[in-house]
Amino acid sequence: MKKYLRLIIILIGILTAVSGLMQMLFPAFVLKLVGAEITNTTKHFFAIVGMFMFLFGGLILHALYSIQDNKAAILWCALQKFGASIAVAIGIAHHLFAWMAGLVALFDFISGIIILLYFKSIYTYEVR
């Protein structure tokens, strides 16, 4: 089970890094996809959010492939996913994003759960 969780998290990390890079480089395109207003301000701040997505995607991949265990990085990446899902849901509630952005929020929320399950599996395994 732990092996499959790890593989799923690797895919989550890759998707997070790639989508963050896309958001960073092409914020107007991504803003259009989620039905948001496109201005210089929203493009700038969306690119910043993309940078952090790229960094957290890279962080989880780094933590998974590192020789040294980094449980803290795994935990913080899970928390980032929950924070992102809440932020997108709030954006939808305030009519900043179209309903389709809910798929992004759902992906991030499920990703957070999967990453926490993995965190629990590595923490429980080492405590015994």
UniProtKB/TrEMBL annotation:
<feature type="transmembrane region" description="Helical">
    <location>
        <begin position="46"/>
        <end position="65"/>
    </location>
</feature>
<protein>
    <submittedName>
        <fullName>Patatin</fullName>
    </submittedName>
</protein>
<keyword id="KW-1133">Transmembrane helix</keyword>
<keyword id="KW-0472">Membrane</keyword>
<keyword id="KW-0812">Transmembrane</keyword>
<feature type="transmembrane region" description="Helical">
    <location>
        <begin position="99"/>
        <end position="119"/>
    </location>
</feature>
<feature type="transmembrane region" description="Helical">
    <location>
        <begin position="72"/>
        <end position="93"/>
    </location>
</feature>
